[in-house]
Amino acid sequence: MMRRQIPLLHECVFRNLSDRDMELDEVFRRIQQFMRLEPRGSYQLVIGTDAQVHNGHTKFVTAVVIVRQGRGAWFCYRHVILPREVKSIQEKLGLETSFSQEIAMFFDAGKRAQLEDIIMPHVYSGAEFHMYIDIDAGTDMRRNATAAYVPDMVGRVEAMGMSARVKPEAIVASAVSDRFTKSPYRTSKKLAAKQQPSSGAGAGGY
Questions:
Q1: Are 165 and 158 in contact (CB under 8 A)?
Q2: Which of 65, 124, 192, 202 has the largest count of CB atoms under 10 Å?
Q3: Secondary structure (3-state) at 203
Q4: Which residues contact 180 (CB under 8 A, 6 or more apart)?
Q5: Which residues pair with 9 in a beta bridge?
Q6: Block means of pLDDT (10 residues each) for the chain, length 206 residues?
Q7: Which of 76, 79, 74 is closest to 99 using CA atoms?
Q8: What is the pLDDT of residue 144?
Q9: What is the CB-side half-sphere exposure of residue 132 using CA atoms within 13 A?
Q10: Cα gap 96→205, rounded to integer Å
Q11: Cis preceding linkage at 83, omega within 30
Q12: How many CB atoms lie within 10 A of CB 113?
C-alpha cells in the first residue's frame, strides 16, 4: 500500500467556524469591530501556534484570538503543513514560535496603536489592551521537556518588542490552536494535484 503523499502547505489566509479565506487585513478589521462593540473592556490580543505530528506530516495551527476579559472572544486560525514528521522537540518549538512571529509582525506598532485608540477614552474606567505571543512551553524542568528552550524562544519574541507568555498563562497555544491540530490534515485529490512543492514565498527553509 502506497503511503499517502502530503503536500507542503503554508496558508496565508485564516478561517474560523463561520468564515473562511480571511486575509490579515480582514482579520484586523474583525478585531477592531469586536473591540468597538465594547470599548470599555479589558482586551488581550494573543497569537499562538501548536503542532501535532501525524503519519507522514506535521500539522501546525496558528491562532489569532482577541479576548474580552470575562465577556467572550473572537478567534481565527491558519494551517502550515510540513510533509515530514518533526520529531525534535527543539525544532518543533522553534517552528511554532517562528510561525507565531510571522503573524505577529503584521500587528506592528501602528496597528497596535489603532487598537489602543479604541479603548483610550475609557482607560480611567478600566479599559485596557495588551498583546502577547503564546509559547507552547513551560518553565518547570521536571514537568516540561521544552523548559530548556524557553529562554531562547522568549528572547526571540522580546527582540521583536513584544511580550511572550508560557504555560500555564499561554492559553492560546495550549487551547485554541491545540483544538485544531488533533486531526490529520486531509486534502482533496484536486487540491493535492495543485499543491506542488516549490521554493516560493512561505515555503523555503521548512
A1: no
A2: 65
A3: coil
A4: 61, 63, 77, 79
A5: 81
A6: 74 96 98 98 97 96 96 95 96 97 97 98 97 93 89 97 93 79 72 41 34
A7: 79
A8: 83
A9: 21
A10: 14
A11: no
A12: 11
